[in-house]
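ok new one. same drill as before - structure tokens go in, u give me an amino acid for every spot. 674 of them this time. try not to just spam alanines like last time pls lmao
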């Protein structure tokens, strides 16, 4: 291959096409077949080459490029889209008798006296979406809406990695493919999203379906891209392909075109065999990383489907068998009240351990007092625990027949179970909190958070040790961590000299962590790691943040009213102020890296960064530029000296092009500073 420098425009265009097609093929092998043939590194190299060519030659940038999956510009609202063929729903049933009746109905409508062949597949618990490819090119995605009119969610669906923007070898017969699928979240992604939401103080999603639906409603596709949505294609409108005569063949054809199809589709003859397969699947469905709430049974022959037709609501050729949520009965032995890092008191049920859908359940969250009242449960009750569309098990009811009068009412405490101070309930919250900042339960959680890997990264300071240190009164706030010494630590139960030395070393090392880490470590409500990074970029030191008014804080990217208030209140609390001062006296770095040491070759230059850089995190490159005398800003203007771009650059790239701002890679930036 010619080096890019020597290529003419025609050759560049050809190379871009080659790269797109090669990356698309590798995506198919990776996402659809799960059989990658190149390493991640080799893939990244192709991707970066394409990205770089598209940057330099935006005239060759096309909407089907695999580099377009990072989410476009925010939208003001969704356009309405009319579905030419309505998006129907399915009749459903929870019992096998009704399934047999469905089979009888099908046979009678078709006047068939032999067994019907069905195409059967798991029913994904997600959100229905319609997708249109025009001549093999992804052009539209719409939500179901009321079945006839939905929202245009093209930009959001585009972010789904497994969904190709161009179909493989789409021939002439593939004009205007109109297909339907289910957008969903994998269980591990869901747990990760909820963990981050908890950290940021946001409301948790109840289940994967709600989380997927909530994500599709976001108006900022970049945010949607972060949610890592997934999709399976399961149906199509009308007859798609000339020679194909069955539903299962159509699915296979769609798969060949590069579309993600559910792996467990089967063609099965006769309703008894269908029921057998449903039972088989029911046994293994919990092992999957996605939630299925049933099975869809479809008549396989497309000609029969046409004869059977549809009612206004649902097709007569298909039915959904829905699994009952898995339930077990056990005994509610106790209810304990846990105090979290922010002081929220959460009731937790203590159960006689039972096995349910692949895991042993011994406790469940009861959320809050209202939930306990709603359930009407008492200690000693036989309770039903369920794991349905929720990854998280929950108590759904108690067995009133087994009550014998010995059951005990659950009393929500009015005092903190740990420190004894009165609990408070704020008018706009369901939660009850302990507001005592020195409460030991909160203190333990706050210290654990402070030492966490993403925060001050104090290795060795985990839950057990924190608990001991707090119980012994050796840790009273963040600053006392830095007053520990080897002898004190070594004298604790189960602590050897070596571990004590390592811990003290790690504590000492943590004093010089990046500025954003200490901001995050302070545990300010709603300030997760991302917002901490934004704050560290924006402000030189803690004092500067402290001086901000609520209005100033509101203008920060990623902030909102409750976030701004929370930051403001944190820094205007006397006790917090004392701790921060102590940390400063202990020489914990509470500011960005020193700005004035060494030569200043970048003085007078302003930089903007877009995309993900290979070598530097955002805070690292920011520190580097600022240490060398340069300035870094968020927006491109005619005063910008350089735009440094990495993988998946945003709109800043085009803006820089329009304003004739110099656009450079990371490597070119490094040459500037040698
Ligand atoms: S076939 C006429 N197959 O379930 C619609 N649907 O409750 C034919 N769903 O609206 C749909 N997994 O969004 C089909 N494997 C699957 C499915 C599936 C989930 C959804 C679909 C439908 C809803 C009905």
């Amino acid at each position: 291959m010619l080096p890019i420098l020597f290529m003419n425009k025609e050759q560049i265009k050809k190379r871009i096409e080659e790269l797109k097609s090669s990356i698309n093929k590798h995506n198919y092998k990776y996402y659809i077949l799960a059989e990658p043939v190149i390493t991640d590194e080799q893939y990244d190299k192709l991707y970066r080459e394409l990205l770089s060519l598209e940057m330099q030659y935006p005239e060759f940038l096309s909407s089907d490029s695999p580099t377009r999956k990072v989410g476009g510009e925010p939208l003001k609202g969704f356009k309405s889209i009319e579905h030419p063929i309505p998006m129907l729903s399915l009749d459903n049933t929870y019992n096998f008798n009704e399934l047999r009746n469905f089979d009888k109905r099908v046979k009678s409508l078709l006047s068939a006296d032999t067994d019907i062949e069905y195409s059967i597949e798991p029913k994904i618990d997600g959100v229905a979406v319609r997708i249109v490819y025009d001549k093999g090119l992804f052009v539209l995605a719409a939500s179901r809406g009321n079945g006839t009119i939905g929202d245009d969610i093209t930009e959001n669906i585009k972010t789904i990695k497994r969904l190709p923007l161009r179909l493989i070898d789409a021939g002439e017969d593939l004009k205007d493919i109109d297909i339907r699928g289910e957008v969903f979240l994998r269980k591990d992604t869901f747990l990760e999203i909820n963990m981050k939401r908890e950290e940021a103080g946001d409301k948790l999603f109840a289940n994967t379906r709600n989380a997927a639906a909530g994500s599709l409603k976001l108006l900022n596709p970049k945010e949607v891209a972060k949610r890592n949505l997934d999709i399976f294609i399961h149906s199509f409108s009308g007859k798609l392909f000339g020679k194909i005569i069955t539903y299962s063949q159509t699915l296979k054809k769609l798969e060949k075109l590069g579309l993600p199809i559910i792996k467990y589709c089967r063609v099965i003859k006769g309703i008894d065999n269908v029921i057998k397969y449903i039972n088989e699947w029911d046994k293994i469905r919990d092992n999957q990383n996605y939630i299925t709430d049933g099975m869809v049974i479809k008549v396989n022959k497309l000609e029969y489907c046409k004869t059977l037709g549809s009612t206004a609501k649902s097709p007569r050729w298909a039915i959904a068998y829905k699994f009952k949520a898995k339930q077990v009965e056990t005994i509610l032995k106790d209810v304990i009240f846990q105090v979290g890092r922010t002081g929220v008191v959460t009731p937790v049920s203590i159960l006689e351990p039972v096995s349910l859908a692949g895991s042993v359940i011994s406790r469940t969250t009861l959320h809050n007092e209202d939930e306990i009242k709603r359930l009407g449960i008492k200690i000693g009750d036989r309770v039903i625990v369920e794991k349905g569309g929720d990854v998280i098990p929950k108590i759904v009811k108690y067995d009133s027949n087994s009550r014998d009068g010995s059951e005990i009412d659950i009393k929500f405490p009015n005092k903190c179970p740990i420190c004894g101070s009165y609990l408070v309930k704020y008018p706009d919250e369901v939660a009850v909190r302990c507001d005592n900042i020195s409460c030991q339960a909160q203190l333990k959680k706050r210290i654990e958070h402070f030492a966490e890997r993403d925060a001050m990264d104090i290795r060795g300071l985990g839950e057990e040790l924190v608990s001991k240190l707090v119980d012994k009164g050796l840790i009273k706030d963040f600053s006392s961590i830095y007053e520990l010494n080897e002898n004190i630590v070594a004298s604790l139960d189960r602590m050897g000299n070596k571990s004590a030395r390592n811990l003290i070393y790690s504590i000492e090392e943590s004093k010089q962590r990046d500025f954003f880490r200490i901001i995050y470590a302070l545990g300010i409500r709603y300030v997760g790691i991302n917002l901490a990074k934004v704050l560290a970029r924006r402000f030189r030191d803690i004092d500067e943040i402290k001086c901000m008014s609520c209005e100033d804080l509101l203008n920060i990217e990623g902030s909102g009213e409750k976030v701004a208030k929370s930051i403001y209140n944190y820094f205007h609390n006397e006790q917090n102020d004392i701790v921060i001062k102590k940390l400063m006296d202990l020489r914990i770095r509470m500011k960005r890296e020193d700005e004035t040491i060494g030569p200043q070759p970048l003085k007078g230059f302003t930089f903007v960064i877009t995309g993900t850089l290979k070598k530097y995190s955002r805070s690292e490159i920011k520190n580097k530029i600022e240490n060398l005398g340069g300035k870094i800003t968020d927006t491109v203007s005619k005063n910008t000296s350089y735009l440094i771009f990495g993988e998946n650059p945003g709109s800043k790239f085009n803006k820089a092009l329009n304003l004739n701002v110099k656009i450079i890679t990371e490597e070119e930036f490094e040459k500037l500073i040698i």
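The CA atoms of residues 504 and 562 lie 37 Å apart. and btw The chain has a mean pLDDT of 88.
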